[in-house]
Amino acid sequence: MTDEEFSDYAHEAVHELMALNEKYHEQFKISDYERWFYDLEKGTLTFSHEGVPHVIAAIQAIGSLSTRTSSWLWAWANESIPKEMSNALLAIREFGQKNNITRLTQDYWEATEDDGWEMSAVATRLLGAKGVYRCPGESGYLFLLLTDIYFVQ
Predict the structure, then answer these.
(1) How many Å apart are CA 111 and CA 98, to the nearest integer?
(2) pLDDT at 11
(3) By the 8 A CB rule, do 83 and 71 touch?
(4) DSSP of the chain
(5) Is 0.90 topped by the overall pTM?
(6) Could you tell me the mean pLDDT of each successive run of 10 residues in the chain, 153 residues long?
(7) Cα–Cα distance between 140 and 153 in angstroms, integer?
(8) Distant-in-sequence contacts of 44-50, Cβ < 8 A, 24+ apart
(9) Closest Cα partner for 144 from 57, 52, 30, 35?
(10) pLDDT at position 153, please?
(11) Which of 14, 30, 46, 87 could form a disulfide with 121 if both were Cys (CB 3.0 to 4.6 A apart)?
């Protein structure tokens, strides 16, 4: 795959992700919940209101963007992320190896927030996920792939 072909592929994936994210935000009223919490041990992202969980998403970690170092780190290379929370992402690395796409195979590289969204969009497209949630932290963002999402009964 040429750089131009990958750029087109990623651009299409970003637009697909925007539509998916809009759909799950509307369907599950994500912005109505004052709190969210991810649990990498359980593989869940929970949205709650007044301490009551309302929506749960099954997740895989995609990667993190450091705003301090302006860098991207794929989840499979992040020692603080349990391996079972990034195993699905190894398919992204394999796709990158097969198509000679360095950003999909290199563990760590200089990046912007737009790059984080682009890598998340490519992951969403390749893995058929439901969307992405970007979790802010003290020094950047953790991007989570939503593999399933549902209301708490």
Answers:
(1) 22
(2) 97
(3) no
(4) --HHHHHHHHHHHHHHHHHHHHHHHHHHTGGG-SEEEEETTTTEEEEEETTEEEEEEEEEEEEEEETTTTEEEEGGG-TTS-GGGTGGGHHHHHHHHHHT-HHHH-SEEE--HHHHHHHHHHHHHHHT-SEEEEEEETTEEEEEEEEEEEE--
(5) yes
(6) 94 98 95 94 96 96 97 96 93 96 96 97 97 95 97 91
(7) 33
(8) 45/133, 45/144, 45/146
(9) 57
(10) 82
(11) 14
Tokens at 89, concatenated: 């992402």
DSSP-assigned beta bridge partners for residue 17? none
Cα–Cα distances (Å) from 6 to 2, 93, 99, in that order, read 6, 14, 9
Burial of 148: CB neighbours in 10 Å, binned 0-12, 13-18, 19+: exposed
**Cα–Cα distance for residue pair 76/87, rounded to 1 Å:** 7
pLDDT at res. 90 = 93
Q: Give yes or no for a contact between 57 and 133, defined as CB atoms under 8 angstroms apart.
A: yes
Token pair listed for 39? 């649990």
User: Is the Cα dihedral 131, 59, 128, 10 positive or negative?
Assistant: positive
